[in-house]
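To the structural biology subgroup,

Please find below the input and predicted structure for tRNA pseudouridine synthase A, which we are adding to the shared reference set this quarter. The sequence is reproduced verbatim from the submission form. If anyone notices a discrepancy with their own records, reply to this email rather than editing the shared folder directly, so we keep one authoritative version.
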Amino acid sequence: MPRYALRVEYDGQPFSGWQRQADHPSVQGAIEAALARLEPDVPSIAAAGRTDAGVHATGQVAQCDMARDWDPFRLSEALNYHLKPAPVAITACAPVPEDWHARFSATGRQYLFRIITRRAPLVHEAGKVWQVKQPLDAAAMQEAARHLIGRHDFTSFRATQCQAASPVKTLDRLDVEALPREDGGQEIRLHVAARSFLHNQVRSFAGTLERVGAGAWQPERVAEALAARDRAACGPVAPPEGLYLTRVTYPEDPFATQPGP
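Predicted structure (tokenized):
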């Protein structure tokens, strides 16, 4: 069966997460329903990462196996037609070898976490960012973030229900970017990259760094929390609406030669 890689963008607000569930809407379920309109017996699809309820994506990658050969552009166009009105879009589609896997062939994942600081309620960005009412010190957050870079036991920064075999991961990037806003607030963006992540790891980073930015924690306390290897030592877990899966990397980019829809 011909296999295709799909680059997927979605608003996570109306979904219970990526993974298909019997009684709740999911991104996987929406895409599989669209595929079923094209071919009735399409097997289950797989994704590079199972994002939680409320988490967004601009660069999720999934795979699907089709019964017949499709022109990639026509497949993406047909899927986008049948995905409406769900807030999900296929932004690229490419044929891949039958042994290629969206999850297991991936060599890296990149996330963005967005925080907006202002007191007035958000209108246009509600549900798309974490709103914090007090100003944040981005320089202090960056100083704290440096303690997390590299290979560590991240037990303090993973969910208790995390099913990963080991808490040891290598964090390649955790950059803090501060952008001024015309409304007088600021947007803090956390750019995070690693080969793979633990459950709630990025949201745990965001919640902990927010405590540093607010002045409740000194930057050195992040190093102490990491060394404790104890979930209780971590700061609060940030809400899901600020998190975006922005890119998945592979030894060879499957979309490099494919025009986007």
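Summary notes: Residues 111-244 form a domain with the Alpha-Beta Plaits fold (CATH 3.30.70.660). Residues 196 and 216 are 29 Å apart (CA to CA).

Regards,
Lab coordination
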